[in-house]
Amino acid sequence: MRELAPLLLEIDQLRRELAQARERSQSLEKLVDEDPLIPIANRRAFVRELTRMMAFAQRYGVAGSVVYVDLNNLKDINDTHGHAAGDAALLQVAQHLSENVRASDVVGRLGGDELALLLVQTDEIAAEQKAALLARKINTQPLMWQGRAVPITISYGVHSFTGGENAEHVIAAADRAMYRRKQKAVG
User: Fold this and answer.
1) What is the distance between the alpha carbons of residues 129 and 135, in angstroms, rounded to a whole number?
2) Domain ranges of the chain
């Protein structure tokens, strides 16, 4: 029995080290997949999830949609109120998006002032309705910054897919839809 005691201690130590290694691995995965500023998927993770959903959509004949979201006038917010205010505006928009989609959906930051939603098993009509609802909610709730209400508005575009497309093509199509919507609003 005495011979087993050191072996059991060593096994226990190895279990603790393995648990610590798993925790470190999970932390590293989060760093690699999460935007450094706001707690949503970064572009790399978003494209990976979109690619998975596109394969699912193609295999099972269901639609999915990408909503491309642009935070309007972020440069003006940064120039007028400082970059911390711009960061807070991005965070507020990301929180609104995250809190108002299903757990199966993905919210990601594509870069700068551009965010995206991956709406799983959602056709274009439902995606348009969801995007319009989110835009109304975001556009009517200003950022409270240093005692001032700073208006935040977004523009969006929707592209639906059933598979067979390239993930970057889907994102680009949603981006083009967003610019067409912006042009109509201006013109």
Assistant:
1) 10
2) 1-33, 35-186
